[in-house]
Write a structure and sequence with these properties.
By secondary structure, the protein is mainly alpha-helical. 62% of the residues lie in helices and 1% in strands. It holds the Pfam family Vac14_Fab1_bd.
Length: 754
Amino acid sequence: LPRLVREFVAQNNTSQIKHVIQILSQEFALSQHPHSRKGGLIGLAACSIALGKDSGLYLKELIEPVLTCFNDADSRLRYYACEALYNIVKVARGSVLPHFNVLFDGLSKLAADPDPNVKSGSELLDRLLKDIVTESNQFDLVGFIPLLRERIYSNNQYARQFIISWILVLESVPDINLLDYLPEILDGLFQILGDNSKEIRKMCEVALGEFLKEIKKNPSSVKFAEMANILVIHCQAADDLIQLTAMCWMREFIQLAGRVMLPYSSGILTAVLPCLSYDDRKKNIKEVANVCNQSLMKLVIPEDDEMDEAKQSMTLPAEPTSEESLSKPEAASSGESSPPHRRRGELDITALKQPLSFPCSSERIQVTLNLDGIVQVLDCHLHDTSIGMMTRIAVLKWLYHLYIKTPRKMFRHTDSLFPILLRTLSDESDEVILKDLEVLAEIASSPAGQTEGHGPSDGSDVRPGPVELHVPARAGQLSSSGTKGLECSPSTPTMNSYFYKFMINLLKRFSSERKLLETRGAFIIRQLCLLLNAENIFHSMADILLREEDLKFASTMVHTLNTILLTSSELFQLRNQLKDLKTPESRNLFCCLYRSWCHNPVTTVSLCFLTQNYKHAYDLIQKFGDLEVTVDFLTEVDKLVQLIECPIFTYLRLQLLDVKNNPYLIKALYGLLMLLPQSSAFQLLSHRLQCVPNPELMQTADGTKPSAGFKRASASNIDYTELLQHFEKVQNKRLEARHQRAGRAEQLDRRVVL
């Protein structure tokens, strides 16, 4: 046969050559008899050898019958087919490349062949074909990619190994740019990464690593946008290796592509946020997720808050793609955000220095912040009670960051976010509560909250009339510590309509969750006094409590506020302001607090002690004789005596040395002593009063005016008679409410007996 073919070649008789190949194919290689098929395969190989360099002219006729035999049921015949094709390819070399797809398709099937001899033969043919592709510069990558994309989803381990080996070969060829087609095969690569075989996983890991190195070297040619959602999906994989690898890719994508990744922010957060609460068993994933979270947060800049969409968008070179992103969060570290005391209007320089994008194509799109999707994801995570603490903290940091960078856009979502932010105050973690308070404080003080149409939607919660609290602003109130001062006074625009709504709803929450008030109430209010203006908080809460119908809650809340006022280091400045009452603002605040403090008689006396209104304190104690003295009442008096012995009232104890100028202070203390039973508090106060020098000087006629040294030059500015009448009115109301409760309890007892 070879001699006959050589003669035809010498004669340039192509028709006879084709006729020989046709006979070998039709009558032998495709025969029903197995021995004939074997003979036909051997004949085709011999024919190819005889043709030599001219075999390229007849490759289609030579290859097709051999590939057909790859599907033969007889393993021996499949081996002969593999051997025949090896000889054909070896002779033809680069001429087989136009037929590469059909050869690759046939080889991918043989790679999974159960017969070891067939598999061994296919490996020899595979190596030969790889050598040909490597040394050639005419490989048709565009035509090959659809076949590769199809075969990469094979579940057979040997087929997967075959696919990965070819990807590694193609990636190593300088003239073949497989990176351009990475979006076509990236999902399949991550699928293979989850294979049960360690060897295949390792090969796939190496292939992905090579691609990532190439991406870092040539970011300008990478289609980041087309691969973003693929990474989002695999960042949520159950397999740790897949998830870690996808998360590492996501980290590099965010850092290299910059704002091109913004349209996919909601999907990225869906994948990243739950990982922030992983334990040490998944420490690596958690650390990479944390970097992704921080890097993505830095991409949000103040320019994203422009109301005009045309101005809002920053035109960046990017691959055209849909802005579709995943927003349904999985049921489960923290990202960096601006500090809570950052001055208004100060830009985040680090965010402005972030890289924008690399050109990915000649077309251009507008990269915009998909804020609606981001807020939806953050809101869902806050509602999910199963997520970890670090995830909740990260969510709150995101919300705070968005309110700092894009306040006007964020206030469109405030009404929907407000209820869950209030509920988060009941969280078990102090860190979560602190971040939650930062967000609420930013909402309550942001100037963007004053924009028309962004006010609270719950009209019942808003106080009638102007929403600002009418407390005159004080000059020089801005403290050196950096806390919000004059700019957050209620009479300035920065104290927006949400501030009063926040105070109302916070008190409602304390009323409905007494345990929250008992365990975290003081902590929450103290932190708010750091984040916002303490005077505004106390003024507004006192104003709200003045109209509180639940008198028992009002009394408890006043007691809590009073304890905070007297003991918290955060309120040192406010205490000094109230202690002297030198300014109209301080006297205004005192009167406001006093009217609400009347819900609790003993706290009213302590407020008078703090403000050095000793005569009025004495007048109040005189009224205690008309009140119903209960165990709770005596307990509060006991606590007041303990407070008097604390450092906060050092000035009061020192004033006991000046008996002549402070007669009503001593009388008030003696009044408290007379109220107390023979207890430890009685002994404590009694010993203190025994230290007062010259007790006989205490005798003072009612009409005697205090000497010039006696404090209260501004007493004429406060109507103490009216305040005393208000106190009596409130006590009568409390007594009436107590009798009503007692009456209802008695009726209930009678019904039970009947």
